[in-house]
Amino acid sequence: MVCSVLHNTRNGFSTLREDPQLDELMEFLNNLNNFEKLGVPKDAGTDSEGGFDLGRMRRLMGLLGNPQSRFKTVHIAGTKGKGSTAAFLSSILRAEGYSVGCYTSPHIQTIRERITLGRWGEPVSAKALSHHFKRRREVLERAVKLEIGCLSHFEVFTAIAFSLFAEENTEIAVVEAGLGGARDATNVISGSDVAISIITTVGEEHLDALGGSLESIAVAKSGVVKTGCALVIGGPFIPSIECILRRKASSMSSPVVSASDPGNRSALRGFCEVSGIPRQLCDIVLQIEKDFDLSIELLGVKLRMLGAHQLQNAVTATCAALCLNKQGWSLSSGSVRAGLESAFLQGRSQILSSEEANLLGVPGATILLDGAHTKESARALANTLQMTFPKAKMVLVVAMANDKDHLGFARELLSVGDLDAVFSTEVDIAGAKSRMTSASLLKSAWLNASREMNMKVLDFKVADSEDQSLQAAGIMESRSILLAEGSLLACLRAADSYWLFPSMSRVLK
Length: 509
What we know:
- Keywords: ATP-binding, Ligase, Magnesium, Metal-binding, Nucleotide-binding.
- 35% of the residues lie in helices and 19% in strands.
- The protein is an alpha/beta fold.
- Strands 1, 2, 14, 15, 16, 17, 18 and 19 form an 8-stranded mixed sheet that branches. Strands 6-5-4-7-3-8-9-10 form an 8-stranded mixed sheet, sandwiched between helices.
- Helix 4 packs across helix 10 and helix 7 (214-221) runs parallel beside helix 8.
- It is globular and about 60 Å long.
- The model is unreliable at 1-15, 465-469 and 500-509 (pLDDT under 50).
């Protein structure tokens, strides 16, 4: 078994350029502040003088005719699990036949991935996105001028997404918050237009931008709660954090449904293969009696997205579907099952096909792509690898942004059994190098983590030339973990040659 894990920051590993039809849109957006490239300013997501100005977003939407008021929205916030929960819920709604708009971020290969439309869940076409932008460009230019250039890339693209949803007669939109919740551009949606709110998890990511503590992060994310609208919480949360969320909901007269309710008996039963791709067999049994009377029993659900954390995201989405059902959105048990089983998201425990492995130059490998970039998500990935490939040896290819916890991330993945090697490399972050961590600094974090954990390691630099093989370096006979650095292509080549020896197998993350 070869498991290849090419880890990046979810939107950095791509050699594709946008469709030429989007040149005009991308030129416009690239002239705006892009905090995915630049990094998020301190206190950006808090109710402070340094926080994002939601007023400018309201003024922008006003100029566009407030399209966000022409459909109902499910608004999702959370540290981790937002995108997967959105994918699950959107898929459930589409399985019932609704015309669904889904807005998520960031993207992997094309910005079109952030907007899906209609009953099939395909990314918006380049032609439709370009046409829509051109017809609204004059208004957008006026808005940028009125705000003295302060409108950001994310704010403008969010406005375009909402405008598209309205134009396409979307019945319900599933919208992922970008940062926090209270000050996020997506929070321009008024309470009367929100069907339900969801908070998936609360963890220590973007600490500086969200107030510096786990509690301040919870407060920021609770900003998506709207008066009288049900709140679905994923979790599990530590008691103090759940108390903050429930207290905010109570102050807004919003009923709360917990995916971690003691009445829920969901479990991962094992794994199977469908068309050669691993799936996890799960039972989802919910019986919720507080605030709402909700129940469902789904046995033997085959999820494409792997890991216990993805089961939790599926349970959260199912709770949301049951809440929508109570509001009159007809969602049958069959549609819930079908939606969960067909849900898929790039870069989330994604196993590439053999054809895709061949294109990467690693034929015969099992290649797992995942966008984990916190210690919590690294722990979830480590658990997924151990459950899905318990006997596989692994090689990791890792690249990360410079504002992540590299040491904590490394500690979690070093706990995976039969880890052979870690290749650190570099990729652009959101198309730029300003947030990129150098391969050498990233390798240093792994070296420090391995020393803390008393692991034997070999420190090696991957050569870009063909004549320096791993075997020649004398490392193939060693039982130590290889820690190496180099360019992306050199690391892929080295990982591939590493696996060719009979005792080795690989995972590109």
